[in-house]
Amino acid sequence: MKIYRVLLAGMWAAALFVSPMAGRAQVVSSKPVGAVRLPHIFGDHMVLQRDLAVPVWGWADAGEKITVEFAGQKKTVAADAAGRWMVRLDAMPASAESRKLVVISANIRREFDDVLVGEVWLCSGQSNMEFTMGGSSEAKEDIPAANYPLIRHIAIPKVTSAVPKDDVTADWKVCSPSTAAGFTAAGYFFAVEIHKQLNVPVGLIHSSWGGTLIEPWTTPEGFTLAPTLEGIHQRVVMANSQSPEYKAKLREVIGKTETWLDKTKKLLTEPGTVEPMPAMPPGLESLTKNSDPCALFNAMIHPLVPFGIRGALWYQGESNHFDGKLYTDKMLALIEGWRKIWGEGPFPFYYVQIAPYKYGEEEPGVIPVFWEAQAAAQAITNTGMVVINDIGNINDIHPKNKKEVGRRLALQALAKTYGKAGIVWSGPTFKSLKPEGAQLRVTFDHAEGLKTRDGKAPSHFEIIGPETDFVAADAKIDGDSVLLSSPACPAPVAVRYAWNKIAEPNLCNGAGLPVGAFRAGQIPRIDQLNKIPEAKDFKPVYDLDLAKLGGVIKYDENNAAAAPRFDRVAYFIELKKNGEPSHYLYVSMDAFTPDAKMLGVPVFGSHIFFQTAVSNLTVLSDVAGIKTGEHLGTGNIEFWPDNYGPFNSGKVPGADDAVWDFGDQPSDPKNGYGSMQVHNTGAKQTLFAVNNWNAGSGADLGIGNSAGKTLDWTFTANAGSYTSKRLRVLVHPAP
Question: Helix or strand or coil: residue 464?
Fold first, then answer.
């Protein structure tokens, strides 16, 4: 940056102005310097998006005129009453010519040097996007060869904010052997491919933070796009100091505090005891942690809007891998939230499916369900996913082969965004499943040259039949299909592929792009409820696949509105882990409500809230240790959407004030963790629990007492460990 000194006769001996951003600034009049400024996303060496009416914006004194000059264009605008201004340059073709972008007001002239026009991509996510060239597998060769002056990179600093920020300090860098080590590796290799194929400048805006969830990167409005995210949306609303909900709660706190102050002041002159000061209610805290919803969008994305971009690259998911199917909705919230605030329409969004990894002692099926959710997000308009299960490292959550990751992202963009012909951009994807005698035929799209990368038979296929569990399948390639069979499964009806967190399968197409995890077909369901003689006299009310848990419950069967008048209620839960037999628990009790609508999962807004004793229990289960029997008189239920603590405020006999068990205390927020628990207090047992349903596959599920610090499965986050999970609610018609 150059600093210009201008002598101003009669007023200033010298005026020294230092720009708060990259680019030169020069005082051009005797008037004191005003408030004209631009965000730091504008700077020397930047790349402007080609073929787009590029916005240039900033702030100034209200009414002040600003002129922007670039590439022969000249646009003038006046700052509005709030001091904001914006011009849009006419769309321009790509240009490698180094030019100046000049911003002029009555007081100042700002020049940005070495500005190019080309393709601009936002790169975001967590540590695998943050992963720099310095750590890539071929850094010793790639960094000295990184002589690409038409590739530019700007790294956004890691900051958080509870409110949207207008600016963040950062500088554009020209790609060279001396700078490339600090570039996002996945983004860099993407840019190299785009630059080579299109022969245009490429700008990378790198805004990522290791270990972060998807929620902090999402706009507040994004959480309104899926009913399953209503709980997160309400948290954002409640933490917004300008929302009516926040203000109402704050007024309540202020009122209680003022009353407390009045009473406490009297103690200065009168005898008495000091009562505890009213506490700040949960949920009003500002969302400033890097795990809080919107905190990173506010600080690391919002300052970039609406800088012209072609699209976005996303590499994230490790921190959300317990979300299961819920992650699809979170991707919708992220993508469409960004698109809405950018105002460019459905810009391209390409992302990376996370690689296989051990993830400690977690169940093998947790990650495949998450992979499935990531793949499902491709239904969102103008998106694409790259599979990397062949280039990961099950012992390292940060696989170092980012060159191939970047190349595969570039293949998506070159084919689908830039219309380059002849590019294979996807590995084989599931198309259809067809039984053929004792075999299953799985047919694929994008399967030209279907093969295995090691020349062996296709691996990681499993099949299941009506009388068998999943077994490893013998697989044979047949054109664009794979034929599956096994002597242990003579009548297969369903298939799953790569259904293990450390699966590194070998099937790919002729271009070497791999097949991602999938499952297909109808898994046979053996109805264990038939083992319960009493249940034959009950009528079904709810049937719920617990894989569908979320802020909104989508029952597979809902007969609540047509339920008969009833005198007893029954719950039947089945849980199954991979390679293990299914387990069940049945419990019936005298009706504790006359309304069948109050028997389901007590989600926020359902008005279901019970902490009450229930009587005349019948308990049947195949889980060891469960006290079974009829006419048990020591039942208790805890159904609510609230948070809760271990204190036994309900005075449930035998409950522990220090342990989450069968006697806990609900607390704010009302739309909180959530409990659906049935207990036998006399046996000091949790019969079954469904907690924290908002977390999807991170919910708590269990039969009997859980091990560890809680007895009622609170904080276990184990729902994703079950390959099948089902809850049914029944009622016995009253005579």
Answer: strand
Low-confidence stretches of the chain (pLDDT < 50) are 1-33
As a whole number of angstroms, the distance between CA 410 and CA 148 comes to 17
Number of domains in the chain: 2
At residue 201, φ and ψ (nearest 5 deg) are: -65, 150
| Residue 689: both structure tokens together | 């629990």
Q: Which domain-ending residue is among 454, 487, 521?
A: 521
Instruction: Looking at the structure, tell me whether residues 478 and 539 fall in a common domain.
Output: no
Query: Following DSSP, what letter does each residue of 328-358 receive, concatenated?
Result: HHHHHHHHHHHHHHHTS-S--EEEEPPPP--
Residue 30 is predicted with a pLDDT of 30
Residue 403 neighbours by CB distance under 10 Å: 21
Q: Give exposure, 436-449, as e/b (b: 16+ Cβ within 10 Å).
A: eeebbebbbebbee
Cβ-contact 626, 617 below 8 angstroms:
no
Q: Are 340 and 223 in contact (CB under 8 A)?
A: no
CATH number of the domain residue 498 falls in: 2.60.40
Specify whether the CB–CB gap between 322 and 722 falls below 8 A.
no
The pLDDT value recorded for residue 34 is: 52
pLDDT of residue 467: 80
**Residues 532 and 487 grouped into a single domain:** no
Give 419's contacts (C-beta < 8 A, 6+ positions apart).
none
How many other CB atoms sit within 10 Å of the CB of residue 733? 13
CB atoms within 10 A of CB 661: 26
Please state, in angstroms and rounded to a whole number, the distance separating the CA atoms of residues 374 and 387: 10
Question: H or E stretch including 484?
Answer: strand 481-485
pLDDT of the residue at 231 = 87
Token representation of residue 626: 């469960």
Domain coverage including residue 653: 528-733
Structure tokens at 144: 């000295």
Strand, coil or helix: 710: strand
Give the closest residue to 364 by CA, choosing from 499, 459, 461.
Answer: 499
Alpha carbon distance 419, 352 (integer Å) = 21
- What pairing do the DSSP bridges indicate for beta strands 617-621 and 494-497? unpaired
Among 46, 58, 5, CA closest to 22: 46
Nearest to 338 by CA among 197, 472, 220: 220
555-to-14, 69, 511, 545, 729 alpha-carbon distances in Å? 74, 59, 42, 7, 11
Does pTM surpass 0.85? Answer: no
Take residue 85 and report the two structure tokens written for it. Answer: 């201004």
pLDDT value of residue 3: 30
Do 506 and 538 share a domain, yes or no? no
Residue 389 confidence (pLDDT): 98
